[in-house]
Amino acid sequence: MNLKALQYFMAAARYGSIVRAAQHLHVAQPAVSRLIRKLERDLGVRLLDRTAQGVTPTEQGAHLLARTEPILQLLAQTRAEVRNWDEDPSGPVSVALMPGVAPVVAPPLARQVRERFPKVRLSLSEGLGGAIAGGVLAGQFDLGLFHADRDVPLLAVTRLLEEPLFLIGPAADGGGKQGRVRFEDLPGYPLLLPEPPNPLRRMIDDLTGARGLALDIRETVNSIAMIKAMVGMGLGYTVQGYSFFRDEIARGDPAFRAREIEGMSRNWSLAVLADRPLVGAVSAVAGVVSEIAAELAETRPWRPPAIQ
Q1: Quick one: 67 and 144 in the same domain?
Q2: Are 116 and 287 in contact (CB under 8 A)?
Q3: Confidence of residue 249 (pLDDT cuts 50, 70, 90)
Q4: Could you give the CA distance from residue 270 to residue 16 in angstroms, rounded to a whole number?
Q5: Judging by DSSP bridges, how do beta strands 143-146 and 256-273 pair with one another?
Q6: Claim to verify: residue 279 and residue 149 sit in the same structural domain
Q7: Which helix (H) or strand (E) holds 193?
Q8: Facing residues of 253 across strands?
Q9: What is the pLDDT of residues 228-241, one digit of tens each?
């Protein structure tokens, strides 16, 4: 049996949907369907009942699922043990960071890992929350730091801190002065936001839906760099954390006006595969990330000085 086919089957069974499994695995839906059907042909049985509402395991599928989970867990554990056979943590560790926190976390993370764990080879990536979660599920990343707005099957997620969110507009809107704004006022601004299933966008949609608000979303933009450039050109506003524009503030020449949205925040959450024990190098790096988050929670460097 193909290991990847087993992983795809397990995700589809747990999510109850091949579409959702593909989204969280960050692979194309046809690839998931194709490998699962190949697995069914190899075994000579139907593993999933498919309906318009999703998929459910057959009796044979449920049996395979129960057998597959401990097998994959054992493989992950063995891989981690072999990778970190020496007493000192060593080997490659891949970490994915959401764009809003990457500039804040990456430098101290790299510095501390170099100093404390010289045998660890750190690989840093940046991506939106959905891509990070899918990458951790697919084994592309060992650790993922992103905004987790809901539970993700097969991932163990630890919330590290809460970061306030801001309505960010061009400097021409108020000359860079800071202030506050109510969430109920957001419909009055032309917005540039990523599209679902981005966790921040999902949170905004959930809040507006619950309060009966309709936002003026001019464009959906799935790139922090593009949003930043468009806001700077006066094309609209966005909702982000302070790290989005902190470099401009530090230079004393802010390109944006930022107003804290009252009562609105996002979490920083650290995710790993639920069936993968944290040992060796991965555990060491996860500890450093948690320490950095704890320090940031104490010092609050992501907030403009005027509203500390």
Answers
A1: no
A2: no
A3: low
A4: 25
A5: antiparallel
A6: yes
A7: strand 190-193
A8: none
A9: 889 988 999 999 88
Based on the fold, state whether residues 152 and 37 are members of the same structural domain. Answer: no
Q: Is 306 a member of any domain?
A: no
User: Do 156 and 127 touch, CB atoms closer than 8 A?
Assistant: no
Cis peptide before 30 (omega within 30 of 0): no
Write the pLDDT tens digit of every residue in 267-293: 899 999 887 767 788 889 999 999 999
Residues 186 and 217 in one domain: yes
Cβ distance 296 to 161 under 8 Å? yes
CB-based contacts of 39, cutoff 8 Å, min separation 6: 1, 2, 5, 6, 9, 47
Record the tokens describing residue 130, joined without a space.
Answer: 């959905």
Cα–Cα distance for residue pair 191/219, rounded to 1 Å: 7
Q: Interior CA angle at 268 toward 300 and 29, to 5°? A: 155
Query: Can you give the residue range of the structural domain that contains 280?
Result: 91-161+268-299
200 & 144 share domain: no
What CA–CA distance (Å, rounded) separates 185 from 80? 49
In terms of domains, do 122 and 246 share one? no
Torsion sign, CA atoms 206, 207, 208, 210: positive
